[in-house]
Amino acid sequence: MSAREDRPRAPAVVGVWSPLPVYRFGGPDQRHVFDGSSGEILRVSELIHDVVGAWGQRCARETRSRLARRYSPTEIHDAFRWVSWMQVANNMLLPFTECETADFPPWEAEVLEGKLDCECRQLVLELTQACNLRCSSCTFGRAYAAARGYPAISMSPQIAESAIDFLADHSASQNRVDISFYGGEPLLEWPLLAECLLYARGRLGERVHFSVSTNGTLLRPEMGRVLAQAGVQLWVSVDGPEDIHDRYRRTSSAEPTFAIVAQGLRALRRAVPTWYSKNVHLQCVTGPAQEWERLEAFFASTDLYDKGALLSVTPVRRKDCVVAGLLLGDQSSSRRKEWVHDRVLSHARALPFCPPAQEFEEDEAEASRWQHGRFALAAADLGALVAIHRRSVASPDSPGPPSRCCIPGLSRLYVSATGEFYPCERVRVGSAVMCIGDVWRGFDAARVAGLMREFHDLNADECPRCWARRLCNLCLAHVSCGPGSGSDRKAAACDGVRRSLAAGLEMYVTLWTDAPAFLDRLCTMTSEC
After folding, report:
1. Does 344 score more than 60 pLDDT?
2. Packing angle, helices 486-514 and 333-350, rounded to 10
3. Is the Cβ–Cβ distance between 83 and 93 less than 8 Å?
4. What whole-number distance in Å separates Cα of residue 140 and Cα of residue 132?
């Protein structure tokens, strides 16, 4: 991409000399610029790539001198003219001083009350804070200074019913609502969970869908029949082959658990095979020292889940590993990203990317390729790819909000074992600051508005200058926990979001060239889930 002589001549003064909210990436063969002001991804020459990076540096003379060591005066002049032309004619590559960032709507209590009254979509019930395991990676564990631990506090039937009633009364505009059961270990309260399934079906009818997250050690065949009748999506923690799983997932008396989980899952399959094939999913937590090839081989061949089910892979952050004393080894997070990047590209080129529910009855080779690629696809940050593929490409004079923060309690409402409301399970449950109501008084709309305003104030200065603002998924959960002030936590979270999106952009442009059908199918599948 270079300046063309038939384009309109740019003004003699080259643009506004202010830094550009862009991310530059690519190798020797392809250079790209993601323009945060418009959302466009531009393929550019090496010269334009360098000029965009130099734009807005304090000393223009030094910048031109540095460029002059590699390019001719004419080439540099044309490159600066091209950037100016993009700014003037196309509203692209605008410096952050000209990029508008919309303020949040006036989230006063009375405005929110109307939405909170009828648009609730998901209820997360903390059936108990107790757990029969002591997993090293668990952020509720003693290694974390602010963790709650595993107290023997369980939800009463009255609180559970009140929470379900609250969802029924505050979701009138929703055709579908979800109830998730959480802990601790929710199967420790199996009788209550079973009662909740029946009660919720009676109150909400067929529009309610259920899910349960469990460590899998308490699974019994009779549970499977109840779960199948209710159509529950069951997520079971399996971190890989036996030695890897048992490295971190042990009982309170330090006993291994893989054999117990595998036995329970196989008994469940025998009891309700049809339900099991599409509704029992695995969730894997990985640390920096994992053996990726072994994990890939395990999840491609294990009989613990079917090809019609899902696999979730969540990496433990390196700083969490240090806090919890997990094995770090000599494999950094960059090693993981490189491995995932290479494997996803390989599978995307080879696979007609299909939803997990698709059966491969007529093509065993296709089934084998899909099964072998599942771990890498689950380990990748596909959310970043979807956000990039679905991004809005618009002029900065039609800005979006400075973040994608949800309205607390609307898309997800977490109800603690003692009946308090929180925005979700990822915030600091038990914190008075994050509490947004309870089952007795309902929502505290003023507190919901206050949380949104406080979050916005954290973002107000920096977001307009950030290249990632049109793709950002930063929310309250990112800044509610951890050491330091809210602004410190936000700065650390922002760095993480930018790293994730940067890796996503680099993968995206390769997929867009080599396997565009993968991206289209990925977004379709995400909409279906």
Report:
1. yes
2. 30
3. yes
4. 13
Band (146; pLDDT cuts 50, 70, 90): low
Contact of 469 with 501, CB cutoff 8 Å: no
Average pLDDT, the chain: 82
**Which residue type does 113 have?**
E
CA–CA gap between residue 242 and residue 501 (Å, rounded): 33
Place 461 in a pLDDT band, splitting at 50, 70 and 90: confident
The secondary structure of residue 393, as a DSSP letter, is: -
Q: Where are the domains of the chain?
A: 22-98
User: How far is the C-alpha of 19 from the C-alpha of 466, rounded, in Å?
Assistant: 10
Backbone angles phi, psi at 396, to 5 degrees: -60, -15
What is the DSSP annotation of 32-74? EEEETTT--EEEE-HHHHHHHHHTT-S-HHHHHHHHHTTS-HH
152/189 Cα distance (integer angstroms): 11
Amino acid identity of 130? A
Long-range contacts (CB closer than 8 Å, 24 or more residues apart) made by 103-107: 103/401, 103/456, 104/401, 104/452, 104/453, 104/456, 107/407, 107/448, 107/449, 107/452, 107/453
Question: Which residue type is seen at 144?
Answer: Y
Per the document, the length of the chain is 529
Percent of the chain exceeding pLDDT 90 equals 40
Mean pLDDT to the nearest integer, 139-149: 65
Q: Which has the closest alpha carbon to 493: 470, 474, 472?
A: 474
Which band of pLDDT confidence, cut at 50, 70 and 90, is reported for residue 348?
confident
pLDDT of residue 16: 40
Q: % helix / strand / coil in the chain, to the nearest 5?
A: 45, 10, 40
Cα–Cα distance, 262 to 258 (Å, whole number) = 6
Q: How confident is the model at residue 77 (pLDDT cuts 50, 70, 90)?
A: confident
Cβ atoms of 184 and 129 closer than 8 Å: yes
Tell me the whole-structure pTM to 2 decimals.
0.85
